[in-house]
Write the structure tokens for this entry.
Amino acid sequence: MRIAIYTRKSVYKEYSESIDTQIELCKNYFRNEGNEYDVFIDEGFSGGNTKRPSFLNMMDLIRLGKFDVVAIYKIDRISRNIVDFFKIYEELEKYNVKLVSITENFDTTTPIGKMMMIMLSAFADMERENIRQRVKDNMIALAKKGCFTGGFVPFGCEVEKKEGKSYLKIVDTDILQLMFTKYLELGTLYATQKYLLDNNIKTVTARSSLRDILRNPVYCKSSEEVSRYLEDKYEVVGKANGKGYITYGKTKGYPMLIVGKHKACIDADLFLKANMLMDKNKEDTSKRKSKVYWLSNILYCPYCGGKYTIVNSDRNSYYVCTHRINRKSGGMGRDFTKEKCINNKYVNAIEIEKKVSKLIYALEDKKYFESVYSKSVGDGNKKEIDILEGKINKNNTSIDNLVDKLTVASDQVSKILMDKIEKLNTENNELKISLDKLKIKEMQKAADNNTKEIKECIHKFKDIKDNEQKRKLASIIFKKLIYDPVADKIKVVF
């Protein structure tokens, strides 16, 4: 028989005795000298899912009809998940491959054998869930004792071992204190980040990272006030004693804030003031309503194809090409390695929005709408169509010239001219096929575009005062508005 021996162990150990034992026992179970064995080993992989390299390789070979039997030490070596196990078992049956568990000693070809296999698989699934719950409970118990249980190590911290357990240790106390005090002094994340970069402190390059640091209670000296402030976000565990907090379970859906064992570096009062200021800034931002931003999603630059974005200068708002200055990631400083757009014009936001509003009002006229709409829809592949038609016309001119030369050419030259004419005719036929495809595509595009919704939005626009509603209607009416500030012209794309 052709036998695949599959072995698995959850924890990787070099020269694992457990793996070797599984292989030897499987081979001893089949005492026929004519058997052929292929061994598949997954060490360091859980039985919770089937994404194991050797297992997947074995299943691919089974689908190619390479084996008669799959031998395993125990059912749970294949899978501890009962749903996965049934899928695997059904696939083995599909390819007439027998599954043999050598220690549990049953024959899957009999009804009693199948029943035993189902029962053992169910027990393996239950055991997996029990193991998972025990691990979870143990990790929570360790976290509640102030231990670091793994995962991402917070900025400015390192992990130290004490009596076989892991604890956090804050090492970059000076930088952290500077971040908190400067944020309170300067009032915004942008200004704080700029200060850090200007002073060559480049450990935090993104504003989101700076925000996460200021929000992280791991640096804060625990106090009753901080615990009360954070109890809406976390289940608070432990009595505040001036030590730092650790967080647990945020990504698992049961966030806990635990009074830890490590020495904190940020006073509770400073932490609270910084976080309350962030709350206020966030609330102010959410309340702030844009007066001039409703074109920012659909207004495009004609030179680089980039979107216009809004900027404020001297209490006025302007639309500018996004690529006029190529900023570094994180929004701070310029990246001189990137090519910038030649469009450096500041387009007054109020003026351009007035122009677009007038355009929308004008589109209520049926004839004007039809002319703008048909022009926009027809522009899609117009350039490519023009190029193809130009090539066809050029080839036709060449063919006419060659035909004129045929009347005075010798037989030998006539053959060369005929070959050239034939070649140009062949090329023209291919160009015409491509041209017809483009024209059909344009016709389909025109037929597919539903103008009813666009017309309804145009009609509604004049009664809308809210900028958010204007933004929504404008994005339905137009696919793009390409504005050239030099020529002061708007190209409409529906």
